[in-house]
């Protein structure tokens, strides 16, 4: 009996090791996978992400071409995750490997010290990120670091405390970034541990399929935007006193599309209007493109779909170094230079090996025009999924920009009842049939698809066939009809 954890409701959040093994057997895991899973359950915490994604996580051992990965038994899977939107340029890039090996031979890291290549990378990053004004770079290792840096910096620079973000956003899980992260159950999972940055307020994200105001787009008049404006304008809301030109709000830190929430894409006018509101109220605009960036949506950056939005800070990570941990904040020089040397630091920030991988990866994005490829393949995939939606009542909604694709499942189209258990079941059935998908959503009823941008048309066709089969099976098993 564990001490100090009497809360009975928490028990439901934690799977039993024997259930995980039973699920693995039921879903046809091979002998080596079963053996390794058994060992993992002896030594790995059940708090790990793998156990939340799947009832039994497959044990991946290598990647193949395009969007293929293999488990320890040699079973092949179509990869609809790209290691959580990290391998946009494809898993196997011999050029990146070569750059890493060459760098490794010279030097791996020298704790945050400058290097010629790092300076070259900074020059490149200020060139390719949005914003036509002097910019500078601050390195981290993880996407969460980038958010932590941004949170500290906007407060330091403005001398104000409050940060605004969107309900359902995900920005990391450390004690600081947790305050910005509110996607589905993340707070419930660690309650009563509070996030450290309490001065965070949230506004509703335009999740139009389930409008938080109960309205219908476009008749809603974008009530969500009016609400943000109201939060900043109304004196009794407490954030500002516009009459006296005072505000306590340092910045908005937002995801342009909500990723962990299941790849939810707002209407076209949302981001430009939100940016305008931030400007009107003298609030810094910080965009987290950690998951939407690096050509995923059919542009190098998602906000480039909306004209000339100029974020004050821009956060990047994940696909930047083709699999090596690496992140950066790129921002207005005036903000980036407002704090003194050593104001933030983490030992491996901007490490040389990661720099070498990033420089080569960026070269690939540009040379192979991966944004254009994402747009083309994404349109093809989207059309196939819309066709499936027309024959499968379990598919409530499909949204896509490039190869950033969200599918929402419902057990009843009219009531839009979230098909949560069905989605869970389908994700395991797809593992059985050889496809890895990310289960996500406010209600755990979405698939968030982010295959490597090198995915082939044949692999998309195969994915569509598997979806068709599994949607039919789920409709039969859970009795879902039009
Ligand atoms: C939008 C966004 N921001 C921040 C993060 C945190 O990045 P990391 O997991 O590398 O710390 C993630 C991770 O999924 C993310 O999707």
Describe the protein:
There is one protein chain. The chain is α/β, with parallel strands linked by helices and 482 residues long. The chain folds into 2 domains: 58-89 and 370-477, Aspartate Aminotransferase, domain 1, CATH 3.90.1150; 94-367, Type I PLP-dependent aspartate aminotransferase-like (Major domain) (Aspartate Aminotransferase, domain 2, 3-Layer(aba) Sandwich). The protein contains 15 helices and 18 strands. The strands form 4 sheets. Strands 4-12-11-10-9-5-6 form a 7-stranded mixed beta sheet, sandwiched between helices. Strands 13, 14, 15, 17 and 18 form a 5-stranded antiparallel beta sheet that branches. Strands 1-2-3-16 form a 4-stranded mixed beta sheet. The longest helix has 22 residues, at 370-391. It binds pyridoxal-5'-phosphate (PLP).
Main beta-sheet annotation: 7 strands, mixed
Shape summary: globular
Q: List the ligand species.
A: pyridoxal-5'-phosphate
Structural class: alpha/beta
Strand order of the largest sheet: 4-12-11-10-9-5-6
List the domain count as a whole number: 2
Radius of gyration: 22 Å
Give the CATH architecture of the largest domain: 3-Layer(aba) Sandwich
Number of helices: 15
CATH class of the largest domain: Alpha Beta
Which spans of ≥5 residues are poorly predicted at pLDDT below 50?
none
In CATH terms, the superfamily of the largest domain is: Type I PLP-dependent aspartate aminotransferase-like (Major domain)
Strand segment count: 18
